[in-house]
Amino acid sequence: MKKILTILIALAALASANSAQAQETITLNRMVIEIWPEYDRREALVIYSGQVIGGVTLPLTLSITLPQTAELNAVAYPAAAGLLQADYTVEGNTVQMTTQTGLFHIEFYDPAFAYAEQQRSYALTYTADYPTNELIWSIQQPPEASTFQADPAPAVTTVNNAGLTVAEGSTQGLQPGDPFALSFAYTRPSDDLVVDTLAVQSGAESAAEPQIAPPTTTTGSGGLSTPTVIALVVGVGLLAAAGIYVVTQGGPRAALESIGMGGRRRHTPQPTASRQDASRSVFCTQCGERISSDDRFCRHCGAAV
Question: What are the tens digits of pLDDT across the range 157-200?
Fold first, then answer.
């Protein structure tokens, strides 16, 4: 009996060691940081998304550290059907989530965004949780923004499908604990939120009754509430079902081409609204993105809904 007990203890120790080793071998092929200042709040909407290098056992648990001031909005992972809400917990400012695909998508608002008269500024420090081959960043500038400056300086500036200017850059070879600091500032005479400005610019009235998606009951846990919105990327970012990152010589490489989730197609996301908003969850009939039933225009593509 004692011999059997010794063998069982040894096997348990070996399994624990193998589990720890597996966690240590997690490497991110890409980490994408997108910042949308003044989008639908007078704060910075920040999107962390990424891809784990293959060879790991799925489903996989990831721990992603957010800024201390972050207000969590959504935790999901891209799949063939679109963005699906992930199981997650929150301890302090660390999100521990389960991904079924090796991809992740986390959104949060940061009230640390500085807003004073016409001056706007924001600084974000991302601390790598895993070895990372490439970090890609982008900043979506609001309409009427001028004197935009970013540190580090962007490698390329593009215009996305919504007509907004996007500054992009990248860096390589981060190790766990390495900080990546990103800051920017600009002036803007308007106080209008970006989503409202895009709706006005579309200049159209509602032409059709929006489709109502059936609610899906999901559960989040930890110190923050269940995410209520999964805002998909308009001009840049990491989506498994839509390769929309601009490929520019000398600039950031395409963030989606190597994922193998299939082409540049846009899919309607799986409904993931919280219980409070489930009955009001609707999708744009043009781009398939989630919108509010109160919206007259899609806050993603600007189309009438």
Answer: 999 999 999 999 999 999 999 999 999 999 999 999 999 999 88
The rounded distance, in Å, linking the Cα atoms of 43 and 149 is: 18
**Residues 3-48 pLDDT 10s:** 555 554 555 544 544 454 445 489 999 999 999 999 999 999 999 9
State if pTM tops 0.85.
no
Q: Select the CATH number that applies to the domain covering 27-189+214-274 from these four: 3.40.50.460, 2.60.40.1730, 2.60.40.2890, 3.30.200.20.
A: 2.60.40.1730
